[in-house]
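[Meeting: bench + compute handoff]

Bench side (C.D.) handed over the final construct sequence. Compute side (W.E.) agreed to return the predicted structure before the next meeting so the bench team could plan truncations. Sequence as handed over:
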Amino acid sequence: MSDPSGAGNLPKAGWPKQIEVLVVQSNPVDTLLTVAAFEKAGATSGLHFVTEGKDSLAYLRREGRYAKVRIPDLIFLDVSQPRVAGLEFLKAVKSVRELMHIPIVVAAGSDDAKFVKSVYALNGNCFIRKPEELGQFVRCIEMCYNFWSNVVTLSPKVRAATAGRL
């Protein structure tokens, strides 16, 4: 849609808006690439990562070393988690009233139709097939971060305790 006022050419003041992002990624190399891509997209603060599904559940429960973390505004989930499968994690988060508002972006190297259907059946907010080419991957993360931080209005956080509910 064209903008006859020319306002579309104005600088975007305050963009990108900073949001809390939890990256759940088991592969250390992919974690580095994903974090670098989020930083390139403008995530200068509020970017956290855990390496496995079990840690991600402790993070959301705010247990142990995660006792003082902020609940994320967005979760970027790699689906190949070693101890708690990605779909199990998705189901756990979406079944807790205090956490179900958190958008979960599920990313995988394959877009198998059966798996994608499972993600949406468990209320995943979107599924992204991770591009193999690094530049495309960075652009994909930039678009994802821009969408969730600037385009949509995220749900306010629910103030109830979550320990023991996941």
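W.E. noted at the follow-up: The chain has five helices and five strands. C.D. will use this when planning the next construct.
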